[in-house]
Amino acid sequence: MPQKKQQISPKTVITSHINSDFDAIGAMLAAQKLYPESVIIFPGSQEKNLRDFFVHSMGYLFNMADPARIDFSGTQRLVIVDTRQKNRLSGVELLLEKPNLIIDIYDHHPSFPDEIQGTYDLSKPYGATTTIMCELLREKKIDISSDEATVMALGIYEDTGNFTYASTTPADFEQAGFLISCGACLSTISSLVVKEMKTEQVTWLNELINEMTTVAVNGIQIHLSAIAASNYIPDLASIVQKIVRMENLDCFFALVLMGAKVHVIARNRLHEIDVGKILGSLGGGGHFYAASAKVENQTLPQVEMRLIELIQQQIKHVRVAKKLMSSPAITITADKSCLDARQRMIRYNINTLLVLDLQTHEYLGYITRHVAEKIVHHKLGDQPVVDYFEPGSQRVRLSSDLAEIEKKIIDLKQRVVPVMENRIISGVITRTDLLNFLVEHNREVVLSEQTDISGLKPRTKYVGNRLKHRLDQRVRTLLSDIGNAGDTLGVEVFVVGGFVRDLMLEQPIEDVDVVVEGDGIAFASYFASLHHCRLHQHRKFNTAVIIFEDGLKVDVASARLEYYATPAALPVVENSSIKMDLARRDFTINTLAISLNTETFGTLIDYFGGVRDVKDKIVRIIHNLSFIEDPTRIFRAIKFSNRFGFRIGKVTANLIKNALNVGAVKNLSGLRVLSELKQIFGEENPLPAVQTMADYGLDKVIHHDLKLTDTTCALFESVGKTLAWHDLLYADDVYPRWAVYFMAWLHGYPFAVSIQIADRLMFPVKEKERLIEQRIKSEHRIRLIEKSYPVSTQQIYWWLIHFKTECLLFMLALTKNESVRKAISHFYTHQRKIKPLIGGKDLKSVGIKPGPVYTTILNKIIDEKLDGKLNTMEEEIKFAKHYAFENKLI
């Protein structure tokens, strides 16, 4: 019988994906050097060239073992390279089920839904995983033999397509050069992988890329790289060509000092520049798309400066507005309807229409087809263009160059700019015109006509120091942990909205709102599991709430966009990017985000000028139809304006008026209006907001009889003083602050009108009773007390004891009688919690028969206690017995 193979029990096992390629093989070999005494498991057979190569040539390098020979009971660590997907592994299934197993992952692929969660995960977007491993070997100064270098280099060459794939990075070139310096055998590599580059070229190509700079000349990007070579570089032209193709460069000049000469190689794809003529001025020559020169007796910096001068001399204002514009410009006067604007854009097949003043024909701005169609969709097509156009202050002249045009359209976020000369519109340049030009000339394009914000580039700034100084250690650690979780899952995470706004305003931060570019619920589930938190999921909106043991909450949402099927309806939600997520928000001050991922931690992202508006103290809407689609934003604009002392921007104010004029708020459900009113009345001083609501006529929209009077304003001020007194003395008491102001808002209105208002706001039954009926009762009760005063302490007690805190505070604010106010205040501070120490069981135990008499006796005890008597149970029982005896109850 054959002998049974001896079992081994390694502490560390290394593996990779099935059908391993050279990158997997090279990465496993590198991992073996990082984890001494480890064992490698090849997951399934390799291709024939791999098997033959390793069996006959390099197999001795690997400490391999058949999974059947391994006893995993002693294995503590599993190292996985070049994959994170469980279904691509073989031979380690049982090991993966082992509890407390340490899993280290090294990979260069993007994340997948079924990926393994590693204890340690090092993933970089390189062209090969072997590149990552080589970086680690170099950092740890681990020696590599020539055979090992050959195997690892094979992985990089193969997975980068000999450095031609788009995924190839400078790091791949750098590590390949390192492996060649370690003795990697290129003849062996060439026999297994189609080779394209010569030995020493990899190092020089890497250096040229590292030294590359960009010079902008009249809107054209020119790339230059200048290096000094220690020896002659053969076939420099092919290296330059490789860089142009790999980096997708329009125009590239390579300057290399070799010996006493500066060699200049140029490649070009732009019509506006002739590199042959430029290098001809340096003693060389060639065509407009390819040229070379050798310059003697000049230093490398001198040649570089002269080259830039020649480029600047040749590139004139060839990309000017006159050549880019569409002419004639299609316009519409501001008095025309939005339906007319839409039909005009359809007729001419354009997406943007210039808006002119009816009388002077001065340029005012523009309206887009997207906006016009939304207005028509919401049955508001008869509204004039002047109410919904986008103001446009940017113009260009016929001679304006591309740099100026790009600045106006891209940097200043203009959909269109008119081309004007002597106040006459000669033509128009739209984003589409610019987009087509950039595509035609192979420029990097970040624009799209599919959405209004697609071409926006964010302003960024580092606010890490602000986070450090403004936040306590608990919150700083929390944000760091969130970023680390994002790194582990391979998703971008941001803290957004009010958190960032309040951070910039140096206001107290109450909420932590996180947005994930990916599955928000999956992220929240992972984080909650990692930190032992509770989790509440809301799958309809793909959001979740993480709840820590101490009650701290973190709201997590997937980056999403929203659209509205009808005005005032709830939004329809779809997953999207952080840019689109911020674009769906209400005001610019709420569109700020801070990246939490490790590499970009503390980077503030501002697409819509939110930082500027925070600084200028202005509330500005993002989209022209925001108040039509969601009229609750009108209330929020007023709330933020009041809370922060900001002003509402002129355009935003006009859009609020337009929305009210077309009846947008009337379509809102009462519950949504009530929710916004609660927030406004819950502010520290809501009076300015209420006054602004009245200025816009919002109160009339809620009920035609509502009117802000001087009496109401005075009552609001009195409520403010009352609540300040209460909150100072009773900071721990919880009560609905908004309810006190709401009762003050409706003070004096008849019961019938109050009920109509409550019904319009869809008050729940219990709240309607508390705020309408109790408000009416409170007003009656305060009049009774004022009319009857002075009265006994007992009478005050029995008149007030059944009123809730908000009603008592309302009465305190309502009365103008100082004696009555003191009496109510005394009740609130000293008497409202007075209760008998004994109960029905105690009365029964002394022989008093149960019945209504119990209430009578207990109330009598309260009357005595209000006079400072009966301070113990014994005294109360004695009093009860005496009272019962006197009244023949026992």
UniProtKB/TrEMBL annotation:
**Keyword Acyltransferase belongs to the record:** no
* Keyword Aminoacyl-tRNA synthetase on entry: no
Q: Which Pfam families match?
A: CBS, DHH, PolyA_pol
Q: Where is the CBS domain?
A: 325-383
Report the GO molecular function annotations. metal ion binding; nucleotide binding; nucleotidyltransferase activity; tRNA binding
Assigned keywords, A-Z: CBS domain, Magnesium, Metal-binding, Nucleotide-binding, Nucleotidyltransferase, RNA-binding, Transferase, tRNA processing, tRNA-binding
Cofactor field: Mg(2+)
Might you name a Gene Ontology BP term for this protein? tRNA processing
Q: Which family does it belong to?
A: Belongs to the tRNA nucleotidyltransferase/poly(A) polymerase family.
Q: What is this protein called?
A: CBS domain-containing protein
Source organism: Desulfobacter hydrogenophilus
According to the entry, what is the taxonomic lineage of the organism? Answer: Bacteria, Pseudomonadati, Thermodesulfobacteriota, Desulfobacteria, Desulfobacterales
